[in-house]
Design goal:
alpha/beta; TIM Barrel; 3 domains; 8-stranded mixed sheet; 4-stranded parallel sheet; 14 helices; globular
Amino acid sequence: MQDRAVTSQFFRITFLGLLASGSFASAAIAQSSGGSAPPTTTVLKAAHLFDATSGTLRSNGVVVVQGEKIVAVGSDSSVPPNARVIDLGNATLLPGFIDTHTHVSGEFDENYYRGVYHDLMRSPPEKTLYAERWARRTLEAGFTTVRNLGGADHVDVGLRNAINDGVTIGPRILTAVYSLGSTGGHCDSSPFPPENVPPAGMLQGVCNGPEACRETVRTQMKFGADVIKICASGGVLSEADPVDVPQLTPAELQAIISEAHLWKRKVAAHSHGDVAARLAIEAGVDSIEHGSFLTESTLKLMKQKGVYLVPTRTAVYWVNKSADTYPPKIGEKARAAAAAHGEMMKTAIRLGVPIALGTDAGVFPHGQNGMEFGLMAELGMTPGAALLAGTRDAAKLLGIEAEAGTLEAGKLADVVAVPGNVLTDIRATERPVFVMRHGQVIVKKTARE
């Protein structure tokens, strides 16, 4: 302990000395001034461009990018001299896709029991390497921004920071760190014998009582949470809890949501159950995730209060398809949720509830996020509305609409292109031919330069 204290004091003194001498400032100035080349200009062309400000398709799409930013959009945009021109031909240019519900630091194994084994036996560094692979696949699928709603061992925080620092390639990540929930609930750890696996506690998001839950919110923010995720009801892929039962009291919900909002963090509530969702909505939550058993009355309340539905239709489809491979309790819940989810979503679409695309990727293989567009359209969303849910409206939910979600001058150059006319083939979103993140080309297929 004494050695650690001495070492810590040494670094503190050394750091202050460097600041005093101006070494840090000089290095920063040298890095940011003089000698750096001007940002390159890239012009993207395609037969079509989806205008997410209006939800319409334009012909002869042109996007001019300089460095990390879009500087011009539209067929009348001039091509600067010496610009790199990428002509994508018969394709549609769109804003980078946004997935508002992922678990990029994990992936559910088709063999349930093998997945549990790997989760227990892999160390955090090993999990981080897998997460880097899954993040890259997500970006290559056209998703330039994701909201990560729960992970373990702070793998999500490290991955987010590494991407932001340019150490590795992946989408922009807004992360929740650990999800918050009650003892024995969906956000608690599995009911392993406590003699073998220590039970989860406050650091891992488990809380009971308003003040403990308030402290747990602060703990997640301390360790890097951009958003707070709660489990308001039971879940499908957990054995110990009924899928539709409320798991947080009104007082606990109020403490969590008020504290998060005070710190300018939004709150996403996992809730299959109607009563649990209504309690969260009344407490001021920003989005309801899944929503399998929501009634028309609750959906109307969501519309009234501007609460987003994040339906995660791909996860519902995938889990129902795999229900027979899960333990019996989980399989039963998966089938019940799937049976109710489609009608709920049709009702939400009919009522005009705000919807943001979210997939729950990690429940199924990463990189297949684009399926969500087509699955939403199958339930009654127009292709244009589905695209808005995964671009403009998702950006609004995340609070990043000033930077992403539409192709407009001044915004980050997050651009995707898919083959053909996306409004006549919404499934083209599953086959991107071009992906750019912050001005960097990630995927380029069948393009002329």
